[in-house]
Amino acid sequence: GIDPSHNQPMGSWSNEQIGASVKENVMLTWAPSKMKNNLPIITHGEGVYLWDSNGKKYLDWTSQAVCTNGGHTVSENIKSAVAEQLDRTPFVYGGMAMCEVRARLSNIISSVLPEGLTGCAFPSSGSEANEAAITMARRYTGKTKIINWYRSYHGGTTNSLEATGDFRRWYIQPPPGFVKAHNPNPYFFEFAGATEEEKTEMSLLMLEEQILYEGADHVACIMLESIPGAAGVLTLPEGYMQGVRALCDKYGILLHLDEVMVGFGRTGNMWGFQHYDGVVPDIVTSAKGLSSSITPISMVAVSDKMMEFFEENPMGWGSTFQAHPVAMAAAYANIKEMLSNDVIGHVQEMAPIFEAHMKECASSHPSIKQYRAAGLFGALDIVSPDGTQPHHFNAPRTEATAAYAKAFNEVGLIGLFRPPVIHIAPPLIINEAEIKEGFEKQHQALDVLDKALGY
Ligand code: PMP
């Protein structure tokens, strides 16, 4: 029997008790809820590892949802920063009162952004940050249309989900004003036979054509991920983002770069857009790595000009928990620690080692067509035995991919898998030996996939 007592200390419920309550009372959101019954029950973590209630150890191979950038051990500094804020006061409503941690966090973020970007707001999730940014772009420009890529992920709330290319096909009544552009990697991840320069040129010509047909006077913003992450780490052809910036300038359109996944060091730079020389967006959103996901917090930063506008005009978006002091305390301590430990320098050091392993996965397994990597942000593309590569969203979850997913956990990895893309994005603090260990396990799981696909 299940003992419904809630007086027992955390950690004392048996697997059966936890499982029974999960079955009865818990709901999943992105997947059919019954899938919850197959998920491991995680008891604790340390460094890049997690343990489940059967004592099984997993290497966190995609930093959960590419967000536990600092791993699973919380430093004494971060713990005491959170405890200190709890002691002062857990909460003041951000529209009613200021506090020191908010001033400090805004200041440190402005100091790591390129000049001309400031004015931080702090919602609680990446989706909300994008929701706020969409509203800001519309209010600032007085225009409505937002251009996004098909292969993208911007969030699960009304507008951020419609900005997302992928799941919008599920919408029953989509909100208006979103225009979809093709990525410069539209299908099979390339324009067949085109050089980098040709891919860039063709993509930009198509984008300009779209702007003209939509009417530049109606387009508020081009909103893109600096490197599309959930869509498969779609690194961009040379010169593309500079071209988008130039189109925005030419037509009086804002450029919003979504750094929710890549911000705070994931790709070996503080910001993903720093891979594109000279590109400074008008709006930046981020989340995940901001607090290493110790607390739920996101950010929106804007250009000086937009900041001036919002000094006089309300943004028209808000939530009770935005600028939550405890969430900000963890983020502030996390950023300071990232900087003092030179986490970005470490990612740069690990990047070539990581990439060499990625390359080996692609070359030694017939089920893998190719890899992409930037810093500690990588993806492998599964290819079907008939040589075709399915579209991202309609890739069949076949017996082969199910066998792979099972093997992946059995060998001791836990991570995101969205066929045909295998994501690899370990915590940024991972060391060389742990990277090697992860890829040894990855090879074992890929052996199962090769076999299951009949190679
Ligand atoms: N933008 C990007 C680029 C993301 O990767 C995500 C989450 N995967 C989001 C926005 C949404 O963030 P959240 O899940 O925190 O709402």
TrEMBL record:
One of its GO terms (cellular component) is cytosol. It comes from the Eukaryota. Keywords: Pyridoxal phosphate. Pfam families: Aminotran_3. One of its GO terms (molecular function) is pyridoxal phosphate binding. Belongs to the class-III pyridoxal-phosphate-dependent aminotransferase family. PANTHER family: AMINOTRANSFERASE, AMINOTRANSFERASE CLASS-III. This is Uncharacterized protein.
